[in-house]
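Shipment paperwork, digital attachment
Item: protein structure file
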Amino acid sequence: MKKITLEDGSKIYCISKLEAQMLDTHVSAYLKNDIVINSKDTIIDVGANIGIFGHRILQQYKPEIIAFEPIDIIYKVLERNAKLSKNDKYKVYPYGISDKNEFVNLVYYPNCPSLSTSNPEIWNDKKQLLLAIKGSLEFAPKVWWWAKFIPVQFYSLIMYWMTRNSKYIKCELKTLSYVIEYNSLNKIDLLKIDCEGNELKVLNGIDEIHWSLIKQIVLEVHNINDRLNKIISILKKQDFKLKIEKEPTLKETDLFNIYAKRK
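Attachment content:
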């Protein structure tokens, strides 16, 4: 486990320093399009990874954060960062969120843990991953001064390195309705979902009686098998007002961010 100093001088534990820097750029996109956070809010972080989203939230506010990360190697870093925050309202759990309570095999990528997924088919399209690499280097963090010097011909080698030595890890998944009942939640002010292809199952795991508790949603969608339209349909049915955007780093990919607020 490593420790890195981010651009603003704050410190956080990580697995990969480069990935932590990119994740920091990535999560900043979630707090836009009229998404509002207050200090007494309850925030659910599905796909917390090492906890950079929670780290940034707690720099400005003091909400209750309930975060989930199913892969034990990543969870241990998340747990360490939660303790680093010194906030007893930052709760972390070693399981993921899906449409049923079960154990599944997730693919873990040790060179790029943020790609880890229960849906490895999302990375079968190598073109999409290459486009993501291209965008990440074009809009790289400031400290990546060297990114502009990497030739396009090297992108395939980067992709190979990112995905090599992958392995299956048995992980536990639970539904969001289970979480709501287990924690006796009476509101969710923000539901953030970034779980590498499992986002539709997360929404399908919310019982009808619990939808009214959710005020705002930010989620990343991997648009395979018409998943974007399916999610839009679910959220509109639940009376959310939507904004759909692409991050600059992912502008050429099939990844979208959805910002949903109750009307």
